[in-house]
Design goal:
The protein has helices at about 10-60, 65-145. Helix 1 (about 10-60) packs antiparallel against helix 2. It is mainly alpha-helical and about 150 residues long.
Length: about 150
Amino acid sequence: MAKFNFRLASVLSVREKVEDLKKNEFGKAVMVLEQEKARLTELEQTRLGCIESFREGLNKGVTPHDIQQHNQYLDLLKKLIQQQKVIIHLAELKVEEKRLELVEAMKDRKALEVLKENDYEEFLNEEKQAEQKVIDEIVSYRGSRG
């Protein structure tokens, strides 16, 4: 029996490598998104902690200068939180872009795999026909001899 040799094996190999690369890029984008979300959570917790400490400070007494500094710090945290939300939105867009690229790479690979399967089925049919032809020749040779 002859060996099956897919004519586009090198193309399939390249597409598999491209798909792996896209998987890695997607994974990195997801990881960056999660890091940015964690940073937002950290900023929000810092803001809440600052508000809580200010409330506790009110019981002990604070100066107008302390109130002013505290308000400036809260404003800064509010701006940082808004900026972080923008960063997260951009990271989400990047994740979606990488996901679409991955899906496209998977489709490309799958199309070649289907073609390979079809070629293999055709190869098996040709092998079966060739084998049947040999059997028929043997039977006809024996029939003509005997």
